[in-house]
Amino acid sequence: MTRKLSHKNPTNLKTFYYGAPYYPEHWDAATREKDPEWMAAAGFNVVRMAEFAWDLMEPREGEYNFALFDETIARLGEKGIATFLCTPTATPPRWLTCAHPDVLRVDADGVPMQHGSRQHACPSSPVFRAYSRKITQAMAEHFAGNPYVVGWQTDNELNCHFSECHCANCQSAFREFLREKYHGDIGALNAAWGTAFWALTFGSFDEIQTPRNGKPAYANPAQLLDYARFISWNVTRFQHEQVEILRAANPQWFITHNGTFRHIDYRGEFTQDLDFLGYDVYPFFDADPTHRPLSQAFNLDHARAWSGNFMVPEQQSGPGGQGNYFHDNPEPGEIRRMAYTSIAHGADSLLFFRWRTCRFGAEEYWCGILDHDNVPRRRYEEIKQLGQELKALGPEVLGTHVRVDVGVAAADMAVYDAHEALSLGLPSPWQMAALIHGFFCKRGYAVGCVHPADDLSGLKAYIIPHWALFNPEWVPNLTAFVENGGTLVIGARTATKDWNNNVIAATPPGVLTPLVGARVSEYGRQNAPDKRPLSINFPKAKVATQHWYELLEVLPGGAVMARWEGRLHLDRKPAVMMKKLGAGAALYVGTYLTEEVLEQLLPALQERNALAPLWPAAPEGVHVVVRENDEKRLWFFINNTDGFVCLENIPEGEDLINKRLTGKFYLKRHELAVVKQLR
Ligand code: GAL
User: Fold this and answer.
1) Among 225, 351, 386, 466, which is least packed by CB within 10 angstroms?
2) pLDDT (tens digit, 9 = 90+) per residue, 413-458?
3) Which DSSP letter does residue 278 get?
């Protein structure tokens, strides 16, 4: 049965799991001695293990040894700490790659990857898949009856380092995918890809290769998109084989995977196979501490858009260092604040990467909770504090979803991949979603990311930023949203390409034309907006545009909201349109939705749907998020500023963190409050 994947879904978890990925294989028994005790004291109820331990569990082909994990699971279990295990397929052992070098991935230059790091084997290799099934089966059988094992993570961050493989196995798997997709009809494939251009016509499926853009020139965008879809299909099939084995061994286990990375459609079967998605949170990859809260919020909202609330199998607990970078050290309170940010945005469980900083290997400077010398210091104390707080808060968040008033279209892998295949140098739909999300987030609105096929009820405004690739099947959902009173904002270039990634035959915006009351009669790139400035004259201000202009033609029902100014042939021509439909309205904006443009659209959004910030009295820099269900509302007030803030008149209710009556109180740097209100 297919589950509806929705941003509003809570996970099916009955326990808020709190803990860390744990690597007993890195340490001797003496160093591990106190781990269960220290973990229990920190409030842990779970660890994750074994994702990179294939060489230990199967040291020689067919010879299994799970002793270290049996012992560790039992020692932790006795202290009330459960375990979820991982299939170890991100790091196949050396005996496997020695015996079968053809499992290694191959890059676009034809260079095979080497054994020596991770993700070196290709999921399209039948040999690798057979070995992956065998180790999964052996683990599943061995741990099926273990009362302390509660679930699984498949592999680890599939496609994190490498996704576009060109090995011999991928050539045949790509053809298999295409044969299935085009029902063996090569003519249908030629038509869908537009192979009449540059003499690309294929006589049979056997002639097709994985596309290598730029080798020598630009590749066919339709072929590139199908290749990206193939990668998703291939990884989904690989994961599915593991899921089947695990579910058969013990149907009580939860199964998750830690995403999200390139070319995997997390709104498709990949996630249907799981109980819920996992999402790894590393905010310090944004080097700017002032921007980090915004990027973290966006990334979390984006992760939630695929399928709903998620688990965080890895959350940053210290500075990360690898190769040529080393993050800032989180300040006291910062790890906890970032963890609360994840919980506010939809985490139903959270683990800190990682328990103890390893002293060797490529990640010997990737700092965990404990330092290299196994001394618990301030990071441990902070995580312990959160562990105590989560005893009350954890159960409260389960079963709630994050409130969204303004939705930004996001989380469609085909749309992202289509843009990447032929971007025209324009900002990507992902980048534009981040920009729009940030605009509303800074101003205190309940903004989130929502896919156009998702449940749009409850949203006041919905914004689709420049989704050239567009599925006509989404139109009825969008139309219903508008008819029911929502305000839809559609950015330039939307719906200009069909699902194959070819340009549509109709005048843009094609299938959206009846909804917006306008069509595009001319468009152009703005490559040097400073040299040939172009502006839109809004009622309150004139705003210089960037990236793109469209000249709009008014159709019945459409009303002009703003006009172009700056270049003679465009002067006074319509630039922004609005059409009323049912109880709502659709706006079409003939340029990119920059902050300046959004600022001018905001009054219309506010007026039409009484759209307002979640808690208008919140001081600047205090991030407000609400998780709710029919019974209650949990208000998160997170101080993201560099100093003290004073919160006044916050909603009446129970303060779950500070255990004090609500009213006026101060939050120090990195501090926060969570107020529970019954509805
Ligand atoms: C994650 C990965 C972990 C570890 C961590 C720190 O992406 O899943 O295994 O590598 O990053 O780099």
Assistant:
1) 386
2) 999 999 999 999 999 999 999 999 999 999 999 999 999 999 999 9
3) E
Of 562, 581, 609, the residue that ends a domain is 609
Half-sphere exposure of 546 (CA within 13 A, CB side): 10
Ligand 1 close to Cβ of residue 314 (< 6 A): yes
Q: Are residues 392 and 448 in the same domain?
A: no
Q: How many helices (H) and strands (E) does the chain have?
A: 18, 29
| Co-location of 658 and 605 in the same domain | no
Which one of 312, 316, 353, 358 would you pick to mutate in the ligand 1 pocket, going by the greatest count of ligand atoms within 8 A of its CB? 353
Helix axis angle for 429-442 and 595-609, nearest 10°, is: 60
Distance (Å) from CA 46 to ligand 1 centroid: 18
Residue type, 464: I
Distance 316 CA to ligand 1 centre (A): 10
CB of residue 306 inside a 6 A radius of ligand 1 = no
DSSP reduced 3-state for 339: helix
Mutate to test the pocket of ligand 1, among 86, 155, 280 (most ligand atoms within 8 A of CB): 280
Find the 345 Cα to ligand 1 centroid distance in Å: 21
Residue 633 lies in domain: 622-678
Answer whether 155 contacts ligand 1 (Cβ < 6 A). no
**Does residue 259 sit within a domain?**
yes
| Residues forming the active site | 157, 314
User: Domain with 308 in it: what CATH number?
Assistant: 3.20.20.80
pTM confidence score: 0.98
| In contact, 101 and 212? CB cutoff 8 Å | no
Both tokens of 647, joined, read 């919160």
Is the pLDDT score of 464 beyond 80? yes
Q: How far apart are CA 122 and CA 2, in angstroms?
A: 28
Decide if 199 is inside a domain. no
Domain co-membership, 428 together with 382: no
Torsion of CA 470, 475, 480, 486, to 10 degrees: 30
Whether residue 23 has its Cβ less than 6 Å from ligand 1: no
363 CB under 6 A from ligand 1? yes
Using alpha carbons only, give the angle 337, 341, 345 rounded to the nearest 5 degrees.
170
